[in-house]
Amino acid sequence: MPEPLHRPGALRPALEGVGRGSPRAQYDYARLINGPAWYRGAAEQLDGWVTLHGWRARWVTVPAATNEGSAFMGHIVLVWTVGRHTYGVGFHDVSRNNRTLDLELLRSIRLIRS
Description:
By secondary structure, the protein is an alpha+beta fold. It is 17% helix and 32% strand.
């Protein structure tokens, strides 16, 4: 029988996620990722594409060295634009597990019109 993922009384690692939405489409990933903390020289690493719900999302790695002050600093982030809004969701630490978490989070998101 497989061992449970979490035993009662055992310490669980902390999981930190960040989400952000922009009131207008952002074509510069660094500006969405850094928000008000954006500065010249803020840069990210572009890591490929995925499509879910018909949304084309970009994998973006946010290095701490070039994104100081960003809530996404040190995260792997999925960034996508729908209509006139751009969104980003990501988990701290760049790993295969966190890519899976990003995909599951994006898969669960439903955008509604008000």
